[in-house]
Design a protein that fits this description.
mainly alpha, two-stranded antiparallel ribbon, 7% strand, cell membrane, DNA polymerase, domain 1, Ser-Thr/Tyr_kinase_cat_dom, Transferase(Phosphotransferase), domain 1, ATP-binding
């Protein structure tokens, strides 16, 4: 870590070796890990701010790739955020230096070891082959984490289910209100052939263009665009499977508002299905991102209710 010098790589201040435990001292990052920071501030950033975070992470990874380093554990939990929203790549516990071998520029682990399945490229899972291209795959997952405000990739699927789904070419759908251009970049990062994935330099260039042309970020991705249906089903909870409104709120990651709904008398799905944005504001759901998420789920609920209405003959 000490040899790195880049504004988007965590800076090593020193090490403590004369006492136990041995410690690494880094610069202080006020907002801690990116995943928890996003969950804490769900819906509070503009698209440009989110793209700026992604650009910083990509710039840090471009630097690492140019230094012939592979991170191998790139995930939002391993990105730290300072008070100015600058994102810095950290946690090099799994990173490896790549020898300049043009015949096979990969690191092949001879040990089993544990790898973060949800963030790891298929070839790295199957053959333990890690390259900058496998880091690009992981970066695509980080993009999805950022645009979903820290949702867990592949939700409650087991690791084996994730492996099977990816092998069958299923890919994560665009998060709510995700610009089409960003989801397309994610899909580019998740191309099966690692040689066809963009390089980090290309990713930085693409994000710079999007930032300069903010209008290109106004086109919102269709949730069904280019993604296989079995994964999409997990983003639209079936309200009939929930016993209470609280269960439904937990399922859409809005459990913090259970008391708000209960105290306002919205205790049945029939009542919830009639709620408007004004109702949400009145009961204390003030964050625009949270309102959008809840209203989107209510819209799905209405569609499901209409589909289950009895047909009169």
């Amino acid at each position: 870590m000490g040899q790195f010098d880049h504004p988007n790589i965590i800076h090593l201040e020193g090490v403590v070796t004369k006492s136990r435990p041995v410690m690494i001292v880094t610069e202080f990052m006020e907002n801690c890990a990116l995943d928890s920071f996003l969950r804490l501030n769900d819906g509070q950033f503009t698209v440009i701010q989110l793209v700026g975070m992604l650009r910083g992470i990509a710039a840090g990874m471009k630097y690492l790739s140019e230094m012939n380093y592979v991170h191998r554990d790139l995930a939002a939990r391993n990105i730290l955020v300072n008070s100015n929203l600058v994102c810095k790549v950290s946690d090099f516990g799994l990173s490896r230096f790549l020898e300049d071998d043009p015949s096979d520029p990969t690191y092949t682990s001879s040990l089993g070891g544990k790898i973060p399945i949800r963030w790891t490229a298929p070839e790295a899972i199957a053959y333990r082959k890690f390259t900058s291209a496998s880091d690009v795959w992981s970066y695509g997952i980080v993009m999805w984490e950022v645009m979903s405000y820290g949702e867990r990739p592949y939700w409650d699927m087991s690791n084996q289910d994730v492996i099977n789904a990816v092998e069958q070419d299923y890919r994560l759908p665009p998060p709510m209100d995700c610009p089409t251009a960003l989801h397309q970049l994610m899909l580019d990062c998740w191309v099966r052939d690692r040689n066809l994935r963009p390089k980090f330099a290309q990713i930085v260039n693409t994000l710079d263009k999007l930032i300069r042309n903010a209008a290109s970020l106004k086109v919102i991705a269709n949730v069904q665009s280019g993604v296989s249906q079995p994964l999409l089903d997990r983003t639209v909870p079936d309200y009939t499977t929930f016993t209470t409104v609280g269960d439904w709120l937990d399922a859409i990651k809005m459990g913090r508002y259970k008391e708000n709904f209960g105290n306002a008398g919205f205790a049945s799905f029939d009542l919830v299905a009639q709620m408007t944005a004004e109702d949400l504001l009145r009961i204390g759901v003030t964050l625009a991102g949270h309102q959008k998420k809840i209203l989107s789920s209510i819209q799905d609920m209405r569609l499901q209710m209409n589909q289950t209405l009895p047909v009169q003959v």
